[in-house]
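Standup notes
- DV: blocked on the single-chain target, sequence here:
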Amino acid sequence: MRENDEFILDIKRMGINGEGIGFYNKLAIFVDGALPNEGHMVQITRLEGKMAFAKSIELKRASKDRKTPECPYQGECGGCSCMHVSYEAMLDYKRNILIEALNRYTRLDTRSFEIKKTLPSEDIFGYRNKSQLPLKSNKEDGTKVCMMKPKSNMLVPVDSCLVQNKLINEINNQILKLIDEMGISTYLYKFDRGVLKHLVVRVNQKGEALVCFICKDKTPKLKELAAKVMEIPGVKGVYENFNTSLKQGVIFGPETNHLAGEKYIIETLGKIKYQIYPTTFFQLNTKQAKNMYDVVLKACKLSFKERVLDAYCGVGSIGLYLAHNAKEVVGIEYNKDSIEAAKVNAKINKIDNAKFYQGDAAELLPKMIKDGEVFDIVVADPPRTGLGDSFIEALLEAEVKKIIYVSCNPATLAKNLEVLSQKYKVNSIQPVDMFPQTPLVESVTVLTLKK
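- DV (later): unblocked, structure below
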């Protein structure tokens, strides 16, 4: 096979990034936008080891699950790569993506434990509570927020985004008009000039918003802009953040300043309140976050007697959600600001049986175990890179009775489960659709110590 070869390819399954995968003489071929059970005339664009990449030239046989995308930008922006798939089918595909990862990276028999149906999201549009979008200006259209075209650095201007909360779209558009009226320049990476890089807006379920301007340089105009932004309905506070990095994918820089209004907004999940700042990590789909935390709470089967370790705890979102049903919760998080926020969140919820420590979970857990600390349950919600090797080694050594693994990456989950299966049995996995219209799938895995 060579580049530019053309042939008809049957698509067998969906890949972890939402692409269709077919096989030609046992060579896996990845085709963007293709769905399982479709036939495509494809052209090979790149060969890479045991894989090949192709583009669809013509759809020969369409899947019954294919639909017309609701968004005019779909395919151009990199946001919703699966909007051409019916939602019911996408829930099945996400479960299958998880199973394929387990089959590829583990020796586990996926028939020996329950892999539940994907937990659907209540909202499949308008669910994102935060946007952090680059800005681009031209004389004809003025300033626009943009999405990034897939596999490129090209910015695609958008007037609104269907998966963002409607209030975010409204606030974005009003702020863009103010930016143009005040003549504040947007940043050009190619020439390293201009002021505004990104516009960050996050909202809570009450319809309150925080705004943050990501800037290359300081300008007195921002305070004047902040005062005008505070007049927009829903806006409760405005910040500025300075980012001098020349890398286009870097959003926040090290310096953040409060310009106007309130310093934070409050979000509520169940009975727990959380202070949210512009730089705070918080689940982007608020309603589905509560549903996922309910899955974790149910899996823990707490009886007010257990010590729970909340590893990679962030602002304490899961740990605090469990605290009312546990004897004690101990949270570990590397980010210092998140730990301070977790302590504040515990205080405002009047939770006195939760403690939070700053540090690398992979280093702190072994130290805690060595110091004689005992945990009945470990809840781990790591980044996409998964659990660190030393953290897994500490878990295996400690022989904690139960592990609840909250994952946002099926591949790293599978690789970690392969190692943990030395001493732990996988009881069940609950896939969770946190990001409708995308191939991303989160999951809650319950593991118990083998007898």
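- Follow-up: The first helix runs from residue 87 to 105.
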